Amino acid sequence: MIRALGILSAGALLLGAFPAVAADLGAVQMPDGAIAAPTAAPTTTFGIEVNPEFYASSSGSNAIGNYADTAIKASLSHTFGGVWVIGGSLQATLKENDTQQYYAEASAGYKFKFDKFTLTPSVALGDTWDATGLGDNKDSNALYYAFYLAGDLKLNSQWTWNAFNLRYRDAFDYEWITPKVSTGVTYAIDSYNSVYTNAGYSWKDTGSGMKGDKMNIAFGYKRAF
Prior knowledge:
Elements: H1 2-17, E1 28-29, E2 35-36, E3 44-55, E4 67-80, E5 84-95, E6 100-110, E7 112-114, E8 117-130, E9 142-154, E10 159-171, E11 180-188, E12 193-204, E13 211-224
Antiparallel strand pairs: 1-2, 3-4, 3-13, 4-5, 5-6, 6-8, 7-8, 8-9, 9-10, 10-11, 11-12, 12-13
């Protein structure tokens, strides 16, 4: 899994090293006077994200605000017809107690566009394994489902306010309810490259009631092509 994430991260760096293309996607005047066909908008996006997390509540030896882990996620998505989106992601969560938890997820969503505001509900299926905290030995893998709802407001040609991203997630065979809410901003460097940051808060219920789980701040890069 770490090797796979390393390969995806290297791919993001290679893509980002390509020369930037013009942001204007309209028709181009050729030297001989001919009009070139408009450049198609990119439909596939690769992303890489680093996400430090901190405890949202005190429990045992863990005090609220203490460092908990760092999640590293690589993702790939494709948009059909400007509204349908399918994607997948791989994530490694490197915990402060020298253990790791991994996630693999596939999702599908639909974009509802209202002028500058876009509402995107999506559903996902995934698997998590290694130090999951589930099962008798706390390392059982768990298949899960998730529902997401994202709301994004385009402020201008470069800035987008990712107003909210809501998650409801639960495992099929275990009680592992893990909702989350986050908000952030995205800055478009050009038509193909963007960076973003967001802050979030998650809860967890594994059978003893819903409790604050993690607070996070994420930093990411996306390359469209």
